Amino acid sequence: MTNPLIALGPPVAAALVRLLGTTLRLRAEGIDALAPSWTAARPLIYCVWHGRILMVPWLNARLRRTHGAREVSVLASRSRDGGIVGDYARRFGLDVVRGSSSRGGALALRALVTAVGAGRDVALVPDGPRGPRGRLGPGVVALAALTGAPVVPLGFAARPAWRLATWDEFQIPSPFARAALVFGAATAIPRDADRERARKEIERSLDEATAAAERLVST
């Protein structure tokens, strides 16, 4: 199904998300563990499920202001939808690399390796752009193994929120909702690691971070 951001367009969507963000009652966990990496400019690889990406650019901008988080390079697909999502992300100060597992994947991976080598944090949506929902693709593990940068799962949840009838159950927080951002433990993946085992471990960690965020907004 069409990405819901298309219905509004990046400028309008970004403005509405900024306005929505000011109303959220946000709780965050795991920030203190990341602060040393931010201070020392040690690159990190973030991953978040596709259905929870709407507020992430706004959250990164907020954490840059309040906690010294670093700007992030994000991966957006080469499709029309990916172009619109990339434009949306740029409006929050994010760098965008175009590519996906199906189109331009090798070039995108090389660009992300270069970004990490230059000391930048990067963010991936490992079940995007088409799913299956909640299934970690190979890109996160490959990038971590090639660069040595740790993987940090990112969970986000809001309640009340709308869940769209899309393949990813795309979540849009309601105004004045309780919201939670959870950073899971950073995990390094050696070059000689069993990549399928590592993929399952990161997938489980991302599920756990998302579940922890859901618990925070339920209490």
Structure commentary:
By secondary structure, the chain is an alpha/beta fold. It has one domain. 42% of the residues lie in helices and 21% in strands. A seven-stranded mixed β-sheet has the order 1-7-6-2-5-3-4, sandwiched between helices. The protein is globular. It starts with 9 loop residues before the first helix and ends with a helix. 42% of the residues are buried. The model has no long low-confidence stretch (mean pLDDT 90).
Short description:
The protein is α/β, with parallel strands linked by helices and 219 residues long. It has helices spanning 10-23, 31-40, 56-67, 80-90, 105-117, 139-147, 195-218, and strands at residues 25-29, 45-47, 72-76, 95-98, 121-124, 151-163, 171-183.
Number of domains: 1
Low-confidence stretches: none
Mean of pLDDT: 90
Q: Could you tell me the number of beta strands?
A: 7
Strand content bin? 15-25%
The end-to-end distance, rounded to whole angstroms, is 33 Å
What is the string of SSEs from the N terminus onward? HEHEHEHEHEHEEH
Helix content: 40-55%
Multimer state: single chain
The number of helical runs is 7
Biggest sheet, strands in spatial order? Answer: 1-7-6-2-5-3-4
Task: State the major sheet.
Answer: 7 strands, mixed
Q: What is the overall shape?
A: globular
Task: Give me the Rg, rounded.
Answer: 16 Å
Structural class: alpha/beta
